[in-house]
Amino acid sequence: MSQDKSFQHELWELIKHIRFPMLVHRHLGGNLHAHPLTMKNKSLKPGEPLHFFVSKKSELGQRLRVDGNVCVTYSDTEKDCYVSVSGRAKVSEDMDAKKRLFNALDKAWFPGGAEDPDLELVEVEIDHAEYWNVKESKATQLFKMASAAVSGNRPELGEHRELQIGSKEPVAHE
After folding, report:
1. Cβ-contact 55, 109 below 8 angstroms
2. What's the mean per-residue pLDDT of the chain?
3. Number of separate domains in the chain
4. Domain harbouring 111, CATH code
5. Closest CA to 133 of 111, 157, 156
6. pTM of the model
7. Domain that holds residue 33
8. More confident call, 86 vs 140
9. pLDDT (tens digit, 9 = 90+) per residue, 124-155?
10. What is the H or E stretch that residue 159 is in?
11. How many CB atoms lie within 10 A of CB 171?
């Protein structure tokens, strides 16, 4: 994904346990539309896309062929972790990737296995990633927000970083 392996590692650590991110794309007519999908990645190495399976019977693959600009959002409200990944999605017919990513639970949707004629593999090439990771306890967060409300200063909660792919350094926000 980038030269910054610590950002790459941190991004993967934040999203790897979030099974159902929302993939947002542009619907016909211009409205944004979101789909919950199951992330198929077992890792996220530099340059590796995010992977999802979709049904050819759905309109998603057709829409992505017209406009592949997408945003994939992840949230873990228990851990106060939020991730936004923007990029370009494409539908792939890579049978090796389908076989590698397919598992027994996918048979519920695609009974023909990785070779099911209804199965499409969506790959999202990451252009930009941003995350907010609040590591403080709820009590500490509440205290910091109350202190900020009294003092007029912004509370410092957790970590907020972003990376535009192709740039050398991630941006840490204050």
Report:
1. yes
2. 84
3. 1
4. 2.30.110.10
5. 157
6. 0.80
7. 5-172
8. 86
9. 999 999 988 876 555 554 544 455 566 767 65
10. strand 159-164
11. 12
